[in-house]
Design goal:
By secondary structure, the chain is α/β, with parallel strands linked by helices. It is globular, with a radius of gyration of 21 Å.
Length: 295
């Protein structure tokens, strides 16, 4: 039985015993306070995470406490030194970083393959030790490399790592990013390109990070893409379009429908909030986003 349920049961028993001496109003207030202390009971169809970098001004421990209180299960894009901090608060790191050469230098360039392979093979055992099973990776910028050449090169580099990934049961997650606004010249900027790469790599230990914000900018058709290609998506990110702000009615995407589409595919992974709060209280914005996505 989850801790929160057993605690609630205990509180109910205590409240029942105290009914003779407490007024109904006092009991109601007591249960309301206890539920707030235990955190919200989310519907749970979507497991939610949050990207650390969007809240860089908030100390990680403070963010972890707030995340736990609002029902989040993860804080992600953290390296090995930070994993124990979030785990202390009962959270995981749904998508770690800590390997690779950054966004611009990725698997599409064979010149980087040796260093990339060594970097990822070094972090796989650390992930296992920490109880984690994913790691982010990137295609890299084109720098004159054609889409077909990029597919060939990424396939060669990733296939060097797949035996180790399968051995350690680590899924490599390549992020799809827009090349129009934020990441000029990035190669994995279309879902079709990423899906083709998944097919060529041919392992369940390689998936895509379908970033809804980035793909809305590049191609739109979000729900249809999720329904068609969900088997290749191992992770999702949110973000308001335009401007990567809050995901409420100030932007063009309707996230409850998108979350329903994700849940309806049977997805068991995580959806991470990756918008940049524009309002004075970033935690309030995050809590609102969690509620919007809790379909």
């Amino acid at each position: 039985m989850p801790l929160s349920l057993s605690r609630r049961s205990a509180l109910k028993n205590v409240a029942g015993s105290a009914a003779l001496i407490l007024s109904p109003l006092t009991l109601t207030e007591a249960f309301t306070a206890s539920n707030k202390a235990l955190g919200p009971e989310l519907k749970g169809r979507i497991k939610q995470s949050v990207c650390r970098w969007c809240y860089g001004k908030i100390p990680l421990e403070d963010l972890a406490r707030e995340a736990k209180a609002m029902g989040l299960q993860s804080i992600e894009l953290l390296g090995p030194n930070d994993w124990p901090i979030v785990q202390k608060y009962g959270l995981t790191c749904a998508l770690p970083n800590g390997a690779g050469m950054g966004i611009e230098k990725g698997f599409n360039n064979p010149l980087y393959h040796d260093e990339l392979v060594a970097s990822y093979e070094a972090i796989f055992p650390k992930l296992v030790e920490a109880g984690l099973n994913t790691i982010i990776c990137f295609s890299g910028n084109r720098k004159g490399i054609s889409d077909e050449e990029g597919l060939v090169n990424c396939t060669l580099g990733l296939k060097r790592l797949i035996p180790s990934a399968e051995k350690y049961k680590i899924t490599m997650i390549m992020e799809l990013l827009n090349s129009r606004v934020n990441h000029k010249d990035y190669q994995a900027d279309k879902s079709a390109w990423g899906v083709e790469l998944c097919k060529r790599v041919g392992s369940e230990r390689f998936k895509l990070l379908y970033d809804i914000y980035h793909m809305q900018i590049m191609e739109g058709d979000i729900i249809a893409t999720i329904k068609r290609d969900h088997q290749y998506f191992g992770h999702y990110h949110t973000g308001g379009v335009p401007g990567r702000a809050e995901i409420d009615d100030t932007q063009e995407l309707y996230y409850p429908a998108i979350m329903k589409a994700i849940a309806d595919t049977g997805f068991q992974g995580y959806v991470a909030q990756e918008f940049i709060p524009k309002r004075p209280d970033p935690i309030a914005s995050l809590k609102q986003a969690v509620e919007i996505c809790d379909i």
